[in-house]
Write a structure and sequence with these properties.
By secondary structure, the protein is an alpha+beta fold. It contains 4 helices and 10 strands, in the order αβββββαββαββαβ. The strands form 3 sheets. A 6-stranded antiparallel beta sheet has the order 6-7-5-4-3-10, covered by helices on one side. The protein has a two-stranded antiparallel ribbon with strand order 1-2. A two-stranded antiparallel sheet has the order 8-9. The N terminus is likely disordered.
Length: 170
């Protein structure tokens, strides 16, 4: 009986923690308070070879027209070691272009049947000039030195992303 109470308590704790609005994101080793920013969560599906599942999630934190912070998590799941190796190499190659660029945080994590890539871009603090040197100015979300929410959303829509507002109650 005591064991059942502990399990119930743990379940309720995880449920409540999972439902709290995330108010801080880590960027360049610093906590960024996003509680006063608007928040959109976007997802999209991607085609991959047979036996490979791809989950793509993006969180935008913004004020007005300005995109302040972007956090993306992409996860590829497969039982094929070769497929996971291919995706791991691709993610690591892409991330290398941004090495040393402050406020552009990346990670690649490999598990038994998945590879996950995470990127956090703090547009409020990143050197936009250096970012544009890497990415180029054409088809970019930067306008007049700032990342724009509408430009990001238009690009995401072209790629098939679906976005929804995240309310304070979530």
């Amino acid at each position: 009986m005591k064991k059942m109470g502990i399990i119930t308590l743990l379940f309720i704790s995880f449920f409540l923690v999972g439902c709290e609005k995330q108010e801080k994101i880590t960027s360049n080793g610093e906590k960024v308070n996003v509680s006063k920013m608007k928040h959109k969560h976007c997802t999209r599906t991607a085609s991959a070879e047979s036996g490979v599942e791809v989950s793509l999630n993006y969180d935008l934190y913004y004020t007005g027209e300005k995109l302040n912070l972007l956090h993306s998590e992409e996860k590829v799941t497969s039982t094929s070691k070769e497929s996971l190796d291919l995706y791991q190499n691709a993610y690591e190659s892409i991330h290398q272009y941004y090495e040393g660029l402050e406020y552009y945080d990346t990670s690649v994590v490999r598990g038994g049947d998945f590879i996950a890539s995470a990127i956090t871009i703090n547009y409020d603090k990143i050197d936009i000039g250096k970012l544009l040197d890497i990415e180029g100015e054409e088809d970019n979300i930067i306008e007049d030195g700032e990342a724009k929410v509408e430009k990001w959303l238009a690009l995401a829509k072209k790629l098939g992303a679906k976005c929804e507002d995240v309310s304070d109650a979530s």
